[in-house]
Design a protein that fits this description.
Structural class: alpha+beta
Distance between the termini: 86 Å
Largest sheet: 3 strands, antiparallel
Strand order of the largest sheet: 1-9-8
Strand content: 15-25%
Number of helices: 4
Number of strands: 9
Shape: elongated
């Protein structure tokens, strides 16, 4: 039985088609495989965030994003700090003893819930259903707040209230205090949120 010779032009066409198919397959596979790699944005989402607080004035709040959450940095006044101990009887967890490892690092389990008394670092998400509480720093009677309000936060969704240390008041929908994220001071004016190795 004799073999039929293949036309050289057909051979060239078959080789060219095979090569084009292989190149196309690789071109399709590379982007597909690369989708399994975390994006730069995703990598950054879990990274620690460095913040310069040198310009933060008393009574001011700045918000930064860490792991997709708003983190508040607030410089409290001496009057706001002085009011904190007197609120203990009205609070659900004044000493941050519930879920301490989840919500409050050891170095923030104090009356101020902070490393430096005047600086509060807290995740700005209500522990009830994940809403973002509003600033209600001015003391005194206001809508949805008690007449003896000392300043803090009000969650407009269901009425949970928190003091200036992010501690939740009793008989409110929110079950826990606001979370204090891991953080540490790199210097007097540089704050690192997301790491606390030196704390």
């Amino acid at each position: 039985m004799s073999e039929t010779p293949i036309d050289s032009s057909k051979r060239t066409w078959l080789i060219a088609s095979g090569c084009a198919g292989a190149v196309g397959g690789v071109a399709t596979a590379v982007p597909f495989v690369s989708t399994f790699q975390p994006s730069e944005k995703a990598k950054a989402a879990g990274a620690a965030v460095e913040v310069d607080i040198s310009g933060l004035k008393t009574g001011e709040k700045v918000t930064v994003e860490w792991r997709g959450k708003p983190v508040w940095i607030i410089k409290r006044s001496p009057e706001q700090l002085a009011a904190l101990p007197g609120l203990d009887p009205q609070l659900a967890d004044p000493k941050s003893e519930r879920k301490p490892s989840e919500l409050t690092p050891e170095y923030a389990r104090n009356e101020n819930r902070s490393i430096k008394p005047e600086i509060l670092v807290a995740v700005g998400i209500c522990t009830h259903l994940g809403c973002s509480p509003s600033d209600k720093f001015v003391p005194g009677a206001q809508p949805s707040l008690p007449d003896d309000w000392k300043g803090g936060f009000l969650c407009p969704c269901h009425g949970s209230t928190f003091d200036m240390a992010g501690r939740v008041f009793k008989n409110k929908p929110a079950p826990d205090n606001l979370e204090v994220p891991p953080h540490m001071y790199l210097s007097e004016t540089r704050l690192l949120i997301g790491e606390d190795k030196k704390a």
